[in-house]
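User: I'm new to structure prediction. If I give you an amino acid sequence, what do you actually give back? Let's try with this one:
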Amino acid sequence: MMTFNVHAESEGLKLDAEAGRHKLVFDEGSSMGGMDQGPNPMQTALASLAACENITANMVAREMGLELEGIEFTIEGSFNPKGFMGDTSVRPYFETVQIQAKVDADASEEQLRDLQEKVEARCPVYTMMKAADVQFQDIWERA
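Assistant: Good question. You get back a string of structure tokens that encode the predicted 3D arrangement of the chain. For your 143 residues, that looks like this:
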């Protein structure tokens, strides 16, 4: 079992967090009443998804004997803000997430599909969102 810890303090909507030796700043844009000093939590959730898929892909590629040079992710998530604003009939998190991954690897199409399937089955952030019934559209292709 692994345990992760974060310490955070807020000033209005801005939040300064420490995760181990790393400092993170989260905020909302001025249109939401923030100071726009960092990405908002929904953006960081998508960035965490990209980071987690990247780490998982590198581990899986190594297990498969593939040389993975890198992955370029473009990720878009959509949610209905009515849930965030209090409408209990609407969920307050992503409904859909589209992932485009351009994979720089010496891999056949079959190996690329196998890599994608294994990453989607093992990535903690991906599987957590999937368990929340987020609908994914995943496109993995060679760079």
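You can read the tokens as a compact description of the fold. Here is one thing that stands out. Strands lie at 7-11, 14-19, 22-26, 68-78, 96-105, 135-142.
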